Amino acid sequence: MSNTATHPSPHRVVIVGGGFAGLYAAKALGRSKDVTVTLIDKRNFHLFQPLLYQVATGKLSPGDISSPLRSILSASRNTNVLMDEVTDIQPETRQIVLKGSTLEYDSLIVATGVSHHYFGKDEWASVAPGLKTVEDALEMRRRIFLAFEAAEKETDPEKRRAWLTFVVVGGGPTGVELAGALAELAHSILKNEFRSIDTTEAQVLLLEGLDRVLPPYPPELSAEAEASLTQLGVTVQTSTLVTNISDGVVTLKQGDRTEQVQAKTVLWAAGVKASAMGKVLSEKAGAELDRVGRVVVAPDLSLPSNPDIFVIGDLAHYAHQDDKPLPGVAPVAMQQGEYIARLVKQRLKGASLPPFRYSDGGSLAVIGRNAAVANLGKFKLSGFPAWLIWIFVHIYYLIEFDNKLIVMTQWFWSYFTRKGGARLITGEEGMVDGELAPLSVEREKEPVEV
Amino acid sequence: MSNTATHPSPHRVVIVGGGFAGLYAAKALGRSKDVTVTLIDKRNFHLFQPLLYQVATGKLSPGDISSPLRSILSASRNTNVLMDEVTDIQPETRQIVLKGSTLEYDSLIVATGVSHHYFGKDEWASVAPGLKTVEDALEMRRRIFLAFEAAEKETDPEKRRAWLTFVVVGGGPTGVELAGALAELAHSILKNEFRSIDTTEAQVLLLEGLDRVLPPYPPELSAEAEASLTQLGVTVQTSTLVTNISDGVVTLKQGDRTEQVQAKTVLWAAGVKASAMGKVLSEKAGAELDRVGRVVVAPDLSLPSNPDIFVIGDLAHYAHQDDKPLPGVAPVAMQQGEYIARLVKQRLKGASLPPFRYSDGGSLAVIGRNAAVANLGKFKLSGFPAWLIWIFVHIYYLIEFDNKLIVMTQWFWSYFTRKGGARLITGEEGMVDGELAPLSVEREKEPVEV
């Protein structure tokens, strides 16, 4: 349908992307009578990405950390949810082009986020899956649990060890959480379930290019995190670059030393690149992009070249606070979404707002059962207290109450039983004996950005 | 690994298939010191199939109705779980052939079940998915929720109606439950979530070849079920055969009358065919097969041609009780699994057992919120009491306690909120505008077997 009707009286806000940024903008605009909202996403659900690693390691189901966008926004009668994909923007006529239709806007909010990238080595995608979508998480889950099944059947000790070696590339929050959960799987959850292998002999290797894990955190918390990981059974290797991933072999470089690790399972938790909308905004609306393709925004999160287009969330490069761009984390996205909603309402009254300012409530990363690190500004916590805070913060933010209840039940139960309930190997069957395609390329020496 | 070592002292039981039949046999043999058990399944989880339709309609996640086989059997130290596929049997040497290895048995229990079939029209599989596996359920879920999304975007009234028409083929328990859940989705759960369409205008058509729904149940319960379905908004058409499914059009035949229904979503709940192991047993072990490929078994569930091979569950055709073979339902499978375990133990003592006898505790089918039918022999219930029984029976049988707790929470919550929590459209993206491949074949006039 082509919305080329006469300009309707309410201000038309179009939001592209139903992640934290887009959803929080939509929610904050949902009760306004002065605007109509159209939220466009190619998926029909909002995904609580910070818990995606728990899907990858079989603790939660995708449905536990997702909520249908329509359901979240059903009470906002001014809001229309559209499952579609934006293919182009025409700022001169204030239109966006969808698959098979166009849509007019008065204010356009772009919040399409980022995906992982492989520093130019896209071939690694097939051997070292990343963790951005539900499908990514299910692919990781499939590989992880197939590896244990294959090891159980393998009689050659060397091959068996390769099946029981898990390499996590990238020591940011995702990598730390993944490695911790993998170690817990091997050393606790799966311990009594195999007959031929001893799962506690599995090796989990966490690789980080910089000199400590959780680089955005204060050094003392990085040290705490590394100690907790080591105690869980993770081998942490910092200042280490991956130079090659091929046919079950990961090649590492630590200073001048080169090492080869036989590992059948490689999980990618390093590097982000901007979604395709960044490029569209650059070509069509004169947006400036940073090195990874994120859109450089003005202090009010609009495009300097076009005040009716806003970019928020992970896709935005906001450099007007501190000396570096804001991190790509959920709290920044939520606050930006709410800021834009206020700004749009203010503008309708002819007023404006002071520049966006991120209020940092602290950051958290969980390492395993009873272990986490929390950076709350003045307070730096680790161990059990940080873990408790982590649990409560995540439950609090799980958008819909039914999800909160389910996840709480799952966690409560798995805390006491040490079982993981969602360990299904689904998708393509019978890949146990499948070998990974050989690859041999060298990675560019970019710093790892997580 | 080839297990061609000398005969070990414990009796080696090999079970193929981790459904209700195989799993209950394994559980009952799990504490015996006289046997070792190897349970082989191509999946790593047991699936609670009776609730699969709730995954297809977005109420539960696959993880909620699955339990890892290793986890269920981890306490049985005599039991080995193998994720593998049986490709052949060699009864003369008492060996089964797996992918890449062989395994010796003393007693072989085959419980590989059935899949759906299309009465010779296998092309229908791509346009009318069935409901046997997790992947099947996710495919149904994807199609159902994509249909609503496509309808929301469609401006042509006729095409929109086709997106909002759902045809369920087969009026057995699965078809009745699917149709009821679909009507609930359209009339209640999704009611306030769309802006362009009125989901309560969706049409759910339930087709049954025989003269009433739930043919295996007493006629008065069939009538109750039909009344409940009609009240929920389902259009029930009995004595109706599907003669063609092609490009969004289902052709029906009711007596001499032919009708064409424009429907984008067709769900298959009719017809079963035996799994491939039936044919292997027939070729290699002299088993007799019935019309749909199930294995005709002796009164002790063994093959008349080979007393060391047993067939149980849906794959077995057991005709030594009543005038017709036992139905392919979970209670029969569980009881057969437990019977075989007892029989194997008795045989080791040189004793035997009287023929297997199914003790029918009753049958249940749920139609929707607060509505079900229950046939408890003397008691025939419908409505809310039957629904309550249905809830408790299903929770009771959900094998692991963690699943019970989660499912109970989900149901409890969705009962009061009328929300469905797991409505993700996953897998191949952007199929909204995809058309179904045209097909034009006529269905054989076999009676519908559910």
Going by CATH, the architecture of the largest domain in chain A would be 3-Layer(bba) Sandwich
Q: Strand order across the biggest sheet of chain A?
A: 5-2-1-9-21-20
The CATH class of the largest domain in chain A is identified as Alpha Beta
**Cα radius of gyration of chain A in angstroms:** 23 Å
Provide a descriptive summary of the structure in words.
The structure is a homodimer of 450-residue chains. The first copy, chain A, is α/β, with parallel strands linked by helices and 450 residues long. The first copy, chain A, has 2 domains: 11-116 and 273-348, FAD/NAD(P)-binding domain; 118-270 and 431-450, FAD/NAD(P)-binding domain, CATH 3.50.50.100. In chain A, 30% of the residues lie in helices and 25% in strands. The first copy, chain A, is built from 11 helices and 25 strands. Chain A has helices at residues 20-29, 52-56, 69-72, 134-153, 157-163, 173-189, 219-232, 277-285, 330-348, 383-397, 401-417; strands at residues 11-16, 35-41, 45-47, 66-68, 79-83, 86-90, 95-98, 101-104, 107-110, 114-116, 165-169, 203-207, 234-237, 240-246, 249-254, 257-262, 265-268, 272-274, 295-296, 302-303, 306-311, 316-317, 363-368, 371-376, 379-382. In chain A, strands 5-2-1-9-21-20 form a 6-stranded mixed sheet, with helices on one face. Chain A has a 4-stranded parallel sheet with strand order 13-12-11-17. In chain A, strands 6-7-8 form a 3-stranded antiparallel sheet. In chain A, strand 11, helix 6 and strand 12 (203-207) form a beta-alpha-beta unit. In chain A, helix 4 (134-153) runs antiparallel to helix 5. Chain A is elongated and about 70 Å long. In chain A, 52% of the residues are buried. Chains A and B meet through strand 4, strand 5, helix 4 and helix 11 of A and strand 4, strand 5, helix 4 and helix 11 of B.
